Amino acid sequence: MRIASLPHGHVYVRHLSDPAGELGVHRLPDPAPAHPVPGAPWWPLVMLDDAWIRQHADEFDLYHLHFGFDQVAPEDLRRIVDTLHEHGKAFVYTVHDLRNPHQVDPATQDAALDVLIPAADELITLTDGAAREIERRWGRAAEVIPHPHLLPLERWHEHPPVRDVPVVGLHVKSMRPNMNPLPVALLLVAAAARGEIGLVLDAHTDVVTPGARHWDGDVVDLLSRAEETPNVRVHVHEIYDDAELEDYLRGLDLSVLTYRFGTHSGWLELCHDLGTRVLAPTVGFYHDQHPGVLAFDWDDAGDPREDQVLAALASLPGSAPWQASAEQRAEQRRRIAAAHERVYRRALAAVAREDGRSG
């Protein structure tokens, strides 16, 4: 089976294959975009275009879309799926994001999903909770296939037990729209000042650079005050490459996610590979990804429940690392590869039946 898998270059998609190799599935490499984005050389997606589909229809059997369509209008997505059907191509869509973390207004993602989900021959999602939401909103069944590992299997190392004074990390990244780090950071800075934790606050350079796209004066003020607080380290840097991100997370006992909305988290998956515990809000389906994710709620004012955050911190000292083994992840990946092949065969069979009826 020849799969146009968008984007093939992303590590998530690469790890849908059996680590020992596959005979039945071949995923097409991403065509190089004219103006690639640093850190995502596969974007914008060249294959996400009805003209490309017409020109290359004889090169693939099935079209599998994951993500990367944030800036594609619903009418363009409609043309894409219509072109696939016109050429007798099976269409599979993996619903990663029911709420897009990069978009303030959920209506934008909703309009895209209203095109993609009804048009797909087969749907996949990552958690049972997301599958229930898809069934409720669109009346479609989605195959639940979990997120594969992100850490390369050869780079596995056992994480030590949590320290007596845990090292906690909060990374504001580039302050994408779904993040609400400031009220959580204030609680963590206070806990560090009391000597309960060591705190690492990270931010990308574009957040603290006046005139940069993601500059945020409130974050700058927070980091300036935090630098004067005992047991707090502030680190401002360019976007980490894979190895730097792994080293950063390995050095933490707990990584705190401050998402106001979202669906699933690759950051959480990488933490589970590395053995770093995660504290995440009870939005989306982060807590469906793996058991053992620590939790807090946002209150009606948009602040974290202080008692829940402090209880999570108090539970850390001496606890075991939260880590999947390389063997577990390799075996899971074999199951993930087999599940995708079954979905692909069902989608191809459904299209063949439809072509037979129309013929």
Automatic annotation (TrEMBL):
Name by which UniProt lists this protein: D-inositol 3-phosphate glycosyltransferase
Domain of life per record: Bacteria
Which organism does this sequence originate in?
A: Kocuria varians (Micrococcus varians)
